[in-house]
Amino acid sequence: MNTTLVYRMLMFIFLSFFTINICIDYYVYIISLLVLKITYSYVEPKFKELLPVDKKAVLITGCDTGFGHFIAIRLAKDGFIVFAGVLDINGKGANTLKDRKLQNLHLIQLDVTKSVEIQEAVNHVQKTSGGLWGIINNAGFGIPGDIEFVLLYHYRKCQEVNLNGQIAIVKAFLPMIRKSKGFSNYVITKHGVETLTDSLRLEMAKFGVGVSMIEPGSYSHATGFASDEVCGRLKKYVDEMWHASTPEMKETYGEKYPYLVYKMFLGFNSDYNDAIAETFVVPVMDAMVDALVNIRPKPRFLVAGGTGLCDINAFYAYFYQYMPEFISDYIISRHTGCYNPIAEQTS
């Protein structure tokens, strides 16, 4: 007898019975909590205390595409002095920002993995504005794939950008943020940086510095997440994974399997519409602005996206930590199909 399975089934029955009991016997409390939540959501925005923009200086990393690109334009239009860090100062994204001809938008060559470029950015900000109110630490990089396929240097490359690069930016610019008692705003969902953000928020409280983390839901249809450039780069990485695979891995998975993620990205790419992308990401930009000017910003902003009625990924994020693993694993496996046999996934 599989005692673990029996235990999980009994737990599921107990939780179902308990939930039904609560709904029947305590429906008044549940309805009251629901009304309270709806009322709070309606009233809270009307009583926010917002700081004046007053040409406050903000540094944004990763402005070539996506959230960083759009928020740089939004903040510059709102009256902030924006220092937009780009990976390629002569690239398509940088040229698009230049074409906007916004007087208070300054482009900076900024690879967050290069200490020389970080120091040059620090010098430029100090020379141009003399101070810094906020950081939107947006730069990110990803190489999706199964653990068995993704190469070690791929992991190291992601870590250099997504964790070490974020830490380097924080350490370089935090003295300016601390002096101005500004707000440091993180637009990432990585667990390592989430821990860093929590620690930094507690450490900076004594200086009057606010730290918030913004966690976007499904916005792959509206950012550079699946651009032609990113898809081309991903194809290269998947090719590397397949060629580096052992004969046993190739026999077990088959050649189609590692390319499933690449095909998924091509699907995102086909949904992307450059003309209206900026309008799709308005909820994320609103959260960023709120984190920068709200006197009492939230520690976390989970911003649902998607193209349907419900962003299922944001829904998972809300409730995942409260679910037993056997329930959350089942839901995720049904959503992703990861439990299905390889032959079924690649057919």
Q: What can you see in these coordinates?
A:
This protein has 347 residues and is α/β, with parallel strands linked by helices. 29% of the residues are buried. The model has no long low-confidence stretch (mean pLDDT 83). This is E1.1.1.30. Pfam families: adh_short (PF00106).
What is the topology?
Elements: H1 3-25, H2 27-43, E1 57-60, H3 66-78, E2 81-86, H4 92-99, E3 105-109, H5 115-128, E4 134-137, H6 152-180, E5 183-186, H7 191-204, E6 210-216, H8 228-244, H9 247-253, H10 260-271, H11 277-280, H12 282-293, E7 300-303, H13 312-319, H14 325-336, H15 342-346
Parallel strand pairs: 1-2, 1-4, 2-3, 4-5, 5-6, 6-7
Keywords: Membrane, Oxidoreductase, Transmembrane, Transmembrane helix
Organism: Mytilus coruscus
Protein name: E1.1.1.30
- Write down the Rg: 23 Å
Largest sheet: 7 strands, parallel
Shape: globular
Strand content: 5-15%
Mean of all residue-level pLDDT scores: 83
The CATH topology label of the domain at 53-218 and 284-307 is: Rossmann fold
The arrangement of helices and strands along the chain is: HHEHEHEHEHEHEHHHHHEHHH
